[in-house]
Amino acid sequence: MDISILCIGDVVGKPGRCVVSQAVPRLVKERGIDCVIANVENAAAGSGLTELLYNKFLRYGVHLMTLGDHIYRKGEIMPLLEKSACAVRPANYPAESVGHEVAIHQTAKGPKVAVISLMGRLFMRPPCDCPFHAADRVLAKLPRDVNIVVVDMHAEATSEKVAMGWYLNGRVSLVFGTHTHVPTADECILDRGTGYITDVGMSGPYDSVLGRRKDRILKYLMSGLPSPFDVATDDPRMCGVLVTVDSDTGKAHRIERIRVDGTPGAGDDGD
């Protein structure tokens, strides 16, 4: 049985939430999508996640959520991360960190989809454990009835993401990169059946510098003076990949980049 999975890149602020709220329900209906996974660590004004926004993503049709280095920017999210069955922290964070290492969604068709988040170590903060060893540990603990496994590799260095793709080749269904907010054009199915893309890009305002107002970033880069990195507003897009996986083998056999242009200035979920 084929299972179709939509993986959405870093949702940045209200523009990102808006385009996700517009695009996900339509895509699910038109493309018969069985599971939606989104990186939501930048959802709350560009940094962090709140319980209100977590619940909004569920209403939009997001089934599983990943987070990265901004996971704890909003302290109020910690109690939710302790109990949520839909959101994961990076599995290579310290064992004392709040949140779960894996989340599982049972699709309407029956097969289950597991998601794991890993964070890179090159040029990333805070320091964390080895993502390769963490992947081995979490995969070894997955229930036997879970054949479809998706990994969000949240990292700065493309080399580290590519290495993780090859390391998990044949062992997971998909490795998709996040964090850099710039979509790459290297989507492929690796030789042992793992879908791969170095970065799915951001879901947010593209008339910006990685989702932030251009004038603010340029002022900082040119002067060195502090400047608030406010979230931009224009040219909202949702970027990601749509992957088709054989539920019996867990192998991917189709991967497609997705881009949906949003409506500038529209509110998300009535806000």
Question: Could you explain how this protein is built, in words?
Answer:
Helices cover 24% and strands 26% of the residues. The radius of gyration is 17 Å and the shape is globular. It has a single domain (2-203, 238-257), classed as Purple Acid Phosphatase, chain A, domain 2 (4-Layer Sandwich). It has 271 residues and is an alpha/beta fold. The strands form two sheets. Strands 1, 2, 3, 4, 11, 12 and 13 form a seven-stranded mixed beta sheet that branches. The mean pLDDT is 95.
Structural topology:
Blueprint: E1 2-8, H1 13-31, E2 35-39, H2 51-60, E3 64-66, H3 78-83, E4 87-88, E5 102-106, E6 112-119, H4 131-141, E7 148-154, H5 158-167, E8 174-178, E9 188-189, E10 195-197, E11 204-205, H6 214-223, E12 236-246, E13 252-261
Parallel strand pairs: 1-2, 2-3, 3-4, 6-7, 7-8, 8-10
Antiparallel strand pairs: 1-12, 5-6, 9-10, 11-12, 12-13
Notable characteristics:
271 residues, 24% helix, Purple Acid Phosphatase, chain A, domain 2
